[in-house]
Amino acid sequence: MPTYAFISPKGGVGKTTSSLIFATQIAKRGVGVSIIDADPNYPIQKWATGGYCPDNVHVISNITENNIAFNIRKVAAIDPIVIVDLEGTAAKIVIHALQEADFVVIPMQGSLLDAEQAGRAITLVKDQEQAVRRHVKNYILPFSILLTRTPPAYQTRNMASLRKSLSDKGIPVFETVLTEREAFRSMFFFQKPLDKLNSSEAPGIDKAIENANAFAAELISKLSPEG
Ligand SMILES: Nc1ncnc2c1ncn2[C@@H]1O[C@H](COP(=O)(O)OP(=O)(O)OP(=O)(O)O)[C@@H](O)[C@H]1O
Ligand SMILES: [Mg+2]
Questions:
Q1: Domains (range + CATH), the chain
Q2: How many Å lie between the centroid of ligand 2 and the Cα of residue 226?
Q3: Half-sphere exposure of 124 (CA within 13 A, CB side)
């Protein structure tokens, strides 16, 4: 059953936000999902205490570099989808998570500085691919860059040229961009999935749900037979 790891060396690019968006979208489709909350601030664990966590979303915290692989395997035997929200790329915990991952999402904000940071994440993915599963001939650990926090309604020129420079280097990038939206922040503030927010808690909830749904559908398609 697929395990999705969300990594990036840079803080604040939207790893936790995109992890939670994906988890809640999976849950809406009636599929069980476990989130391994390996961010030391436990943002998803805190979110889940608000009383609106769907029954089929299971949050696992108290994760360390010593127990992450065990926990991923344990929940992967129960839930069809496992999501791992990590912090940074330097720690051993990230290496252990990559060793269990079937797909890696690398969120990134649209600036050249972030492009360099994403490059570091890609190197790490490639290193693990070689190191861990070398017994599987030509094993490739698939990954894709997710452009995040872009201004709504338009693609900035920077974003377009960044997208082009990544694709010129053969680096996969999601078609879907996670736009900067208040509703995505409100999810955490009000400790709710997007579809439980009401219009006094955030504007543009419908657009945010549409955006979340497009991202989830694209990510699911990456590991589906047709994807
Ligand atoms: N698409 C978005 N729209 C609006 N706000 C966003 C979006 N993505 C992230 N944010 C906000 O940016 C901040 C950082 O996001 P988030 O915590 O998801 O990043 P992170 O990569 O997990 O950070 P860290 O490295 O600290 O774990 C949070 O306040 C979050 O609400
Ligand atoms: Mg985080």
A1: 3-223 (3.40.50.300)
A2: 31
A3: 27
